[in-house]
Recover the amino acids of this structure.
């Protein structure tokens, strides 16, 4: 049925998970990323959040930031949702489905930091959210151009080499993922990491790295 | 022939996207940026629509929903960030709002349930929203939120029925239809009441 | 030296939106330059417009309560393909037969090609979509309720 095994990057496909037109696949590459996302989701579920302590320079004074339980629960929920979205994006075998999972990663990333009661962090989250929202244009635009020019969205079909995917569509897809995940702009995300809550902010960083790695695989494969 | 139609459409879409991004480069005001990215979402839909098939039409819905939900979350962040919490004080108060809500809301909800599906949800949501606007609302949002969550679960049940037990497709499509009705209704009502009530 | 300057610009989140927008602007210009792109004629779920149909703008093909052929990506994964397309609730069937412009749209009634795609063959898309909406609502409502 799925005769075009992708061997150019991820090795042979171990097994495929069928959801109608959307056939997810687990190749060594995607499976590794999937396990990574899964492990960090479990970590977010079980770990206890940090307590951030600010130490004043030149003295013994320090302040511990008080974080309400409610806020931590909300952020844990967002981190878990982010982990699930990344897991979905890692194994998705359909371009449009992948873009949807990617935008979910983007919005959960905003959610993880948006709960923080700190104006500076909120500012950063807002800027980041604007970029994530603008990134849906290249993301969905790229997927739509692929659909119109090849007549399919399935990565299985596209990988067979029968179709030529326009380079501009690949570029749009890549740029969209960069916008959603800020993958190469970690320095800018540092403002978001200023927020307390260690295991959860890690999820922001990890998920964007994962979707970036995955989109590289997709761009090379199709 | 078709080739040129598609390329012409793409040209316009790219030009519109370019214009929008150019204005985003120039714009510094946060609120204006929010409006600009909302305009970008419309161009996104144009890109999808250019495929011109039923599939494209089906894909527009997720695209639209992603845009709306991100806009909603971002505008709430904007409000918190700027510390804007002024609520409208003198809202519209006319006599019909005291006497009519029950019946109009009931008519709209019943009509929405008859319509079912997405537009049914919108109509029924409007009914509930009208009721809340007129009668005030204190504890309702929690209830509506729970209903919306249950509808989401229903949707997932329908999805797995389609995948695992395709012979029960009729049950699945009905479940999904009901779920979307409740979900859209709840979301509409919530968006409308999120302005803040007398208890805050 | 240059790298540290670039990273300094990148690290300021105020510059993020203009930078990203500029990158997208460049790509839009490249997109225009690479036109024309060939439209692939053999599409999935093709759309036909039948001006003579009573459901004209919303007629998505297929006859209610009849076998409806649907061009899906992997028909073998959906054994009951076409059944949802051909289904209409009795009430919507009545409306479809007696009024104009009531085809099978997602915005109205269960059944129809869009339901077939959104619920059945590409159901996972819709699941993700509703999850996104759910997450966004959770964020907005959490912020709303916290500071009220």
């Amino acid at each position: 049925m799925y005769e075009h095994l992708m061997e150019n990057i991820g090795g042979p496909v171990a097994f495929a998970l069928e959801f109608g037109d959307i056939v997810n696949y687990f190749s060594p590459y995607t499976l590794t990323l999937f396990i990574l996302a899964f492990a960090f989701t479990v970590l977010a579920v079980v770990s206890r959040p940090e307590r951030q302590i600010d130490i004043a320079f030149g003295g013994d004074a320090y302040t511990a930031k008080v974080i309400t339980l409610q806020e931590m629960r909300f952020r844990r929920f967002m981190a878990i949702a982010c982990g699930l979205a990344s897991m979905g994006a890692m194994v998705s075998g359909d371009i449009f489905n992948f873009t949807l999972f990617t935008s979910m990663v983007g919005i959960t990333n905003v959610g993880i930091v948006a709960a923080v009661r700190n104006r500076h962090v909120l500012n950063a989250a807002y800027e980041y959210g604007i970029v994530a929202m603008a990134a849906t244009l290249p993301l969905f635009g790229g997927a739509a151009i692929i659909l119109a020019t090849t007549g399919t969205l399935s990565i299985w079909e596209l990988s067979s080499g029968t179709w030529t995917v326009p380079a501009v569509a690949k570029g749009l897809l890549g740029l969209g993922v960069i916008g959603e995940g800020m993958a190469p702009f970690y320095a800018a995300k540092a403002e978001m990491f200023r927020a307390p809550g260690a295991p959860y902010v890690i999820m922001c960083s990890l998920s964007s790295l994962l979707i970036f790695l995955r989109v590289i695989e997709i761009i090379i494969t199709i | 022939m078709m080739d040129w139609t598609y390329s012409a459409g793409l040209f316009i879409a790219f030009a519109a996207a370019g214009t929008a991004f150019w204005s985003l480069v120039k714009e510094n005001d946060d609120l204006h940026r929010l409006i600009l990215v909302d305009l970008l979402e419309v161009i996104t839909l144009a890109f999808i629509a250019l495929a011109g098939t039923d599939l494209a039409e089906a894909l527009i819905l997720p695209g639209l929903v992603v845009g709306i939900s991100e806009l909603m979350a971002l505008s709430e962040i904007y409000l918190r960030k700027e510390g804007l919490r002024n609520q409208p004080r003198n809202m519209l108060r006319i006599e019909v709002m005291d006497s009519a809500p029950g019946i109009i809301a009931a008519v709209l909800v019943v009509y929405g349930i008859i319509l079912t599906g997405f537009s049914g949800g919108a109509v029924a949501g409007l009914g509930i929203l009208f009721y809340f606007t007129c009668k005030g609302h204190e504890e309702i949002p929690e209830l509506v939120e729970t209903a919306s969550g249950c509808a989401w679960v229903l949707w997932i049940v329908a999805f797995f029925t389609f995948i695992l037990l395709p012979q029960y497709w009729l049950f699945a499509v009905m479940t999904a239809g009901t779920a979307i009705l409740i979900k859209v209704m709840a979301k509409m009502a919530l968006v409308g009441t999120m302005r803040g009530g007398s208890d805050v | 030296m240059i790298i540290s300057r670039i990273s300094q610009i990148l690290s300021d989140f105020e510059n993020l939106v203009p930078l990203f927008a500029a990158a997208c602007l460049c790509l839009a210009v490249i997109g225009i330059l690479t036109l024309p792109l060939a439209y692939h004629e053999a599409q999935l779920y093709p759309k036909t417009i039948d001006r003579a149909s009573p459901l004209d703008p919303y007629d998505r093909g297929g006859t209610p309560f009849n076998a409806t052929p649907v061009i899906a990506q992997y028909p073998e994964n959906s054994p009951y393909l076409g059944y949802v397309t051909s289904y209409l609730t009795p009430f919507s069937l009545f409306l479809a037969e007696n009024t104009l412009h009531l085809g099978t749209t997602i915005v109205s009634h269960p059944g129809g090609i869009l339901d077939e795609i959104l619920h059945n063959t590409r159901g996972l898309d819709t699941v993700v979509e509703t999850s996104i909406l759910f997450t966004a609502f959770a964020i907005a409502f959490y912020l709303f309720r916290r500071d009220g």
